[in-house]
């Protein structure tokens, strides 16, 4: 019986990676500029696969988890390049699919004058997440305050604009206008006010968290 010979590892110039939730599609280009391989790998097998490949340029589109993937590959001596999707589109050939996307990404990664996205550290991602959560809390608080003011104006009660004005005068208004506002509506408004207070409490804690995150020592990109 013939024994199967071990397949030689190709001498790679670049790899294009189409990042999915669970599966990554790879297209590798050899030093001769031709496609050396097309491969589909699972997310959990990323490090094992690239550990066996020679160090090379690895292109990927800027997307969720791109910075994590980039740091993982850099730790394995590869040269990751994160590319804005708008710069990949001109290199797409044929029908759009995962392998064609990966091939276009590889070609874009080899362009010397292309603008690449700077790889973010874990601390920078943490800080970004804190800002996004704070923005969501601000939006939630504003929506809650506006809804309370709308309910009150339907009862003929006008309240000055702003969260602080509502917070300082709401209970006094409900007490003084108890004959005009039903108990059901009053309880509903109080419940909404408590939701708004929860958002405001979280907002007051956010600046301290942001400063603490910014002052934290950088985490090694291992």
Structure characterization notes:
- With 222 residues, this protein is an alpha/beta fold.
- It has two domains: 12-109, ATPase, nucleotide binding domain (Nucleotidyltransferase, domain 5); 122-215.
- It contains seven helices and five strands, in the order βββαβαβααααα.
- It has helices spanning 46-51, 66-75, 85-88, 98-109, 122-154, 163-176, 183-215, and strands at 12-19, 23-30, 35-42, 57-61, 79-83.
- The chain has a five-stranded mixed β-sheet with strand order 3-2-1-4-5.
- Helix 5 (122-154) runs antiparallel to helix 7.
- The two termini are 45 Å apart.
Order of helices and strands: EEEHEHEHHHHH
CATH superfamily caption of the largest domain: ATPase, nucleotide binding domain
Provide the domain count.
2
Mean pLDDT: 85
Number of helices: 7
Please identify the structural class as seen in this structure: alpha/beta
Trace the largest sheet across and list its strands. Answer: 3-2-1-4-5
